């Protein structure tokens, strides 16, 4: 029997595609795009198609596992749940609930994945992770500037005269924006790409700017200085809707164009041209996550926001400083699902510094880690420290679909369902504002269970069964409740498969900003309330010639660790043979300096660790730049995070994954 169903891609991605899944004899036989989805229109990427392989793989975890004398042995669910619950009870009695750490990330965009928080809050409140490896620095920066991080609707790009793609690898990571760019280009819209690596998106650009990694704030400043010199700024917007502009002017007066050319390695003429582009409204800016993963990352995003603001591109069709689109997630009642008021104790570590947090925790020490929707051993910076920290804890419990590097370290591994094996609704606060319905299409293999089932079973054993005595449908309705008055219900969603959420297609068009002053804040009151300098600043990456010349002498090359093409983070490597090795991409000058040829084995190293891989020479990349894609498994060459730093960004909410100096040398071919 064959049936075709419409559902959603659950992967952590800009696009949240509508999928069309063929089910044959109770198994997923094919994953295609849903042509009726207004944004994604039937086009999906290989990662989405591979959800079939993820579901059907012979490597799926099928039974609960317990480590005994260093080896995993199969145990029953009854035993697994009883033992984990007993430990949770004992920890609560002896040390307090914050002796448990919940380590997680955003592996699945399902609404019901928020029920993990409900479990931990009802348990009493555990040590939670704050900030984000992904976009934390930029979200906080936009919150200081606008009061929130909102993007324009995808179709609004039709109103843009120019589109600036700033540090976003669109063709690889955001394929439907790439489709829009191709269409915009046909209409005559000018496309500008600012990126130290010349990627596929740059190939279609009318103008490509290669910037020195981590120095984008100086580029934005150079453009602004030229804009003010040429009188291209929007004085009406600045006067009516902003505060702190005189601080910006003062800052720009004190820095010369020559200095900015030198810092960015971008010619002044390019800055002048960009000033004219920004002045010739509307210009849309699509910021990626690239330039905010530095120690100065929040400040960088703030300078780019400031450029968008002074050029009058805020709140107008075709404009925008498009970074996150938090208005999407804000449509749902997450608190009704998570019950934050139920916790009576709390402690936080930042996502970046979870390893240090674990190793240094006192009163109470961390006695147990529960990992869900995340693979910290490959994805969190400073892998060697993460490994040490996780190994130091008595009990590590991992809910997983596969035996990842993190699962391999665990004491208990609990097998969970994949997307087509459970019902949920999916959305992402990164790009478009459609919510997609995802029905349960097939039975899970072996004894795999949903995360929700596990939480409910543990809750029963810990005395708060009532908090989980709801059906999936009831939980979904809880989360969707605020949407009812907009006519968005679970029933309609089931019928129509995707619905547009009530968000603003052109944010800030009413100029009512969510900042303390109600205006766009060049100088942030919120930052000042948090005890930080609210002014825009001159800041450098932490691992740079300027900030740390000694380190730069020892490790003269900048390492980027961008997202892989064929895998969503670590989720596909084990399923695609051709990517099961470590590729080291180097700019031409690095290859020349070090006598490296294409295909050579090389060793990349710094004080935190080392990796060995195969050299690929990049035809066009900023000098002194190396890239190793993130997400690789230990058995296929190792995660690049053995090299990255766990330092937090300037505003403390983001990572500094791309702020990393290394050296490279030829390794012996084996
Ligand atoms: N194929 C694929 N797609 C994905 C994902 C995936 O793993 N694989 N992951 C999804 C997720 S979770 C996310 S967060 C998004 C991320 O989407 P992107 O923001 O596109 O992510 P990155 O891979 O970090 O690429 C950022 C770009 O910034 C550039 N860059 C690095 N440093 C700098 C700098 O200092 N200045 C400037 N101007 N540019 C810089 C890099 O060269 C790269 O081209 O992608 C999503 N889509
Ligand atoms: N060096 C470097 N490091 C990075 C990045 C980078 O660009 N460079 N990118 C960062 C970014 S943007 C992000 S978002 C993070 C992502 O970090 P993670 O979210 O930790 O990365 P994933 O590889 O997606 O791992 C998620 C794990 O969750 C499992 N999983 C999937 N669905 C479910 C589910 O429904 N339930 C449970 N229990 N498990 C599930 C998968 O099998 C997978 O092993 O990585 C960050 N790390
Ligand atoms: S990974 Fe992203 S682009 Fe690919 S199918 Fe899923 S949502 Fe679409
Ligand atoms: Mo991310």
Automatic annotation (TrEMBL):
GO molecular function: any one? molybdopterin cofactor binding
PANTHER family the record matches: OXIDOREDUCTASE YYAE-RELATED, TRIMETHYLAMINE-N-OXIDE REDUCTASE
What is the name of this protein?
Oxidoreductase
Q: Enumerate the SMART domains for this protein.
A: Molybdop_Fe4S4
Taking every annotated instance into account, which residue ranges of this chain make up the domain 4Fe-4S Mo/W bis-MGD-type?
2-59
Source species, please?
A: Parageobacillus thermoglucosidasius (Geobacillus thermoglucosidasius)
InterPro entries to which the protein is assigned, alphabetical: Asp_de-COase-like_dom_sf, MoPterin_dinucl-bd_dom, Mopterin_OxRdtase, Mopterin_OxRdtase_4Fe-4S_dom, Mopterin_OxRdtase_prok_CS, Prok_Mopterin_Oxidored
Q: Which Pfam families match?
A: Molybdop_Fe4S4 (PF04879), Molybdopterin (PF00384), Molydop_binding (PF01568)
